[in-house]
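so im writing up the methods section and need the Cloacin immunity family protein record in one place, dumping it here so i stop losing it
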Amino acid sequence: MVMKIRLRWYEKHSNDLKADEYSVDIEDSDSVFEALGLGGETAIYADVFDMLPDWTMIIQPYFQHMIEPDRLDYQISFRYQGAWPPPPKQPKTRT
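--- predicted struct ---
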């Protein structure tokens, strides 16, 4: 399963959309969801999330735009690319 994150940024005072960017392809979407604390979200591909400050370090490597939460407000959403529905998650095995 390949996923992209859509990052949108807005002026803090006017909420005007400045621009948006799609991430590079992300092969392991589950690890990104877990790192963001969104692993339990049921409508992950149908929602938009206000970006939390601690998410910056997690998602910055996937984007060219330098994320500046002190200057701009951000929202992210997720786009699945591939056959729908995605295959069921496999249980994690202990090693």
